[in-house]
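Reader question, answered in our methods column.
A reader sent in the components of a multi-part assembly and asked whether the whole thing could be modeled at once rather than chain by chain. We filled in our standard form and ran it. Here is what they sent:
COMPLEX SIZE: two components
ENTRIES:
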Amino acid sequence: NAGVTQTPKFRILKIGQSMTLQCTQDMNHNYMYWYRQDPGMGLKLIYYSVGAGITDKGEVPNGYNVSRSTTEDFPLRLELAAPSQTSVYFCASSLGDITYEQYFGPGTRLTVT
Amino acid sequence: RKEVEQDPGPFNVPEGATVAFNCTYSNSASQSFFWYRQDCRKEPKLLMSVYSSGNEDGRFTAQLNRASQYISLLIRDSKLSDSATYLCVVRGVGSARQLTFGSGTQLTVLP
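And here is the structure of the entire assembly that came back:
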């Protein structure tokens, strides 16, 4: 199993551009999450999904959108990129919530200039 | 007050030393507690869950004090490979049951 995969690994965007960060998991997990991690900071939840067709906002959703059309895929869309969105983005998945471990992808390093 | 607070360190310790990290959380209704490990420029990985009775996994011991809203991680006989950032993670309450991450404590084990 590949686990959680993310593409691209790195990206530089100009202010105002848009892009989609891809996330795929092959563990048949119902729950998927998008986090961002700024330097020296903890991870902050952007959006999450408890199953195909169901998404909800996390702590820092502004400037992002998500969709969950399949169990495997959970893309994150950035519209009108801003320098404040420069960060490392991690996708994660888990079988359930409360006590289940979250498995993280390798991350996407995004710079907006 | 931050929801989850950790001493950022860095902690620089010699091989074989015992080192302890502390973490406090602000929401007394928090349900679950974890320590994650994050290597430099890598993704976080679960190190261990933290139970009310305390739990041990080899050289690692985690403890929870609900009354003081305090979590600790003890590493005995430190190895070079223990060098990483250790994230204290708390699961909240409500429908989201979101994880809240501390900003991490950086550990470097020196030869």
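What stands out: The two ends of chain B are 37 Å apart (CA to CA). The mean pLDDT of chain B is 91.
Send us your own complexes using the same form.
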